[in-house]
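testing teh design pipeline on a random one, pls ignore if ur not involved
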């Protein structure tokens, strides 16, 4: 294992069907005013809103309603939330929803009292808060991003022309997160499988980097195998609690900073995915699914040993009588087969990428100098074209 690292994850998790009952205990740790942030209304239809509001009221909290956080949350919406926080002197932002709502809550937390332009300070310059921040708590309703136990806040700024991620430090991680797998049962199949691929992508982004033998990779392989197993069950029977709860747990560990310990990371698939999301507003996990195979086939030769390991340890590919290239290609073929099986979008064309907007997408891709190969802009265009 190489490198020096600090592992510090302060988020307290409550997991399982009974988990919401701990919310009342958590609320005692914060002041009287709670901003209840949520999305477009799914929590009103499935009863989660009523359950949360009842606990807030029983705990004597003043509720500040903050509805309408959209998938791929915008910076404009963050500014709106900041005004609500300041006007009401909010003590806790309770995000009830998926990654979009939780990412948004962290963005508001860091920006509400920021005296500089928050977009530039955090998302462009990747600075850290120097002002007062507001504690965030989460009730997770959609599985995939890992936002419930990390500092990630991915925000879209259409005026600036970028969808950018900021990873805040542990001070901005949710103080607590309630993970009830039952709450995810009403997620539509399309969103559900997009979340499954998002998890796989987080695992692969961290796996395909580095050359050292590293314990972290063995943990990662275990999570990938569990995800592949459970997602096959859940794609056929979304009501399978065992599979859905395993996937919820896997998603959290896939991106709560454990898997980067002693490793770098790649994250170029996410940069391309964010650019597609910016231009088309497509679902995050599907943007990743649509470009992953062309991307990995493109960089496979630069990190061949790890693609061979992926094929053998994750997919059980036999190496007998094959060259390393053949084994690595077989691994990617298994990945492709699994993607088709669970039903993710295989082509970015289906998400709205076409010859007319291809250059705009490419312009919005951040090229990171990490992973096994640093792409050129021409390579980005070639991968996008192949993904269509
Ligand atoms: O808005 P509502 O009505 O709640 O509907 C949502 C939304 O339309 C719906 N949904 C959520 N829970 C539901 C439900 N529908 C029925 N029943 C439920 N229980 O699902 C739709 C998608 O929700 P969203 O929160 O957008 O999904 P996701 O969790 O995939 O979040 C995506 C966002 O997270 C960012 C992505 O870029 C994207 O903006 N990411 C955040 C990361 C992080 N914080 O570390 C890392 C990821 O790589 C990712 O970039
Ligand atoms: Zn992701």
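output:
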């Amino acid at each position: 294992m190489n490198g020096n690292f600090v592992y510090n994850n302060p988020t307290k998790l409550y997991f399982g069907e009974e988990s919401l009952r701990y919310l009342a205990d958590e609320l005692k740790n914060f002041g009287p005013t709670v901003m209840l942030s949520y999305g477009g209304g799914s929590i009103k239809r499935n009863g989660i809103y009523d359950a949360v509001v009842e606990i807030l009221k029983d705990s004597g909290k003043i509720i500040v309603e903050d509805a309408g956080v959209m998938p791929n949350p915008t910076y404009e919406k963050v500014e709106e939330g900041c005004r609500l926080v300041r006007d009401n002197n909010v003590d806790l932002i309770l995000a009830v929803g998926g990654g979009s709502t939780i990412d948004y809550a962290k963005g508001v937390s860091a920006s509400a009292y920021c005296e500089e332009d928050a977009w530039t300070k955090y998302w462009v310059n990747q600075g850290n808060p120097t002002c007062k921040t507001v504690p965030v708590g989460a009730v997770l309703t959609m599985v995939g991003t890992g936002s419930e136990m990390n500092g990630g806040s991915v925000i879209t700024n259409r005026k600036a022309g970028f969808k950018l991620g900021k990873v805040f430090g542990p001070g901005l991680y949710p103080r607590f997160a309630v993970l009830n797998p039952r709450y995810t049962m009403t997620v539509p199949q399309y969103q559900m499988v997009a979340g499954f691929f998002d998890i796989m992508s987080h695992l692969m982004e961290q796996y395909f980097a580095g050359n050292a033998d590293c314990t972290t990779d063995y943990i990662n392989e275990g999570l990938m195998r569990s995800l592949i197993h459970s997602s096959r069950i859940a794609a056929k029977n979304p009501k399978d609690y065992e599979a859905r709860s395993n996937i919820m747990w896997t998603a959290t560990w896939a991106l709560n900073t454990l898997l980067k310990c002693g490793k770098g990371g790649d994250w170029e698939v996410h940069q391309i995915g964010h650019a597609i999301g910016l231009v088309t507003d497509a679902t995050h996990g599907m943007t990743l699914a649509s470009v992953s195979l062309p991307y990995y086939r493109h960089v496979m030769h630069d990190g061949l040993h790890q693609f061979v390991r992926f094929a053998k340890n994750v997919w059980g590919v036999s190496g007998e009588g094959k060259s390393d290239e053949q084994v690595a290609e077989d691994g990617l073929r298994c990945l492709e087969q699994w993607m088709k099986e669970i039903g993710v979008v295989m082509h970015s064309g289906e998400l709205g990428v076409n010859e007319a907007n291809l250059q705009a997408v490419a312009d919005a891709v951040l090229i990171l100098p990490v992973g096994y190969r640093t792409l050129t802009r021409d390579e980005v265009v070639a991968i996008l074209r192949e993904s269509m």
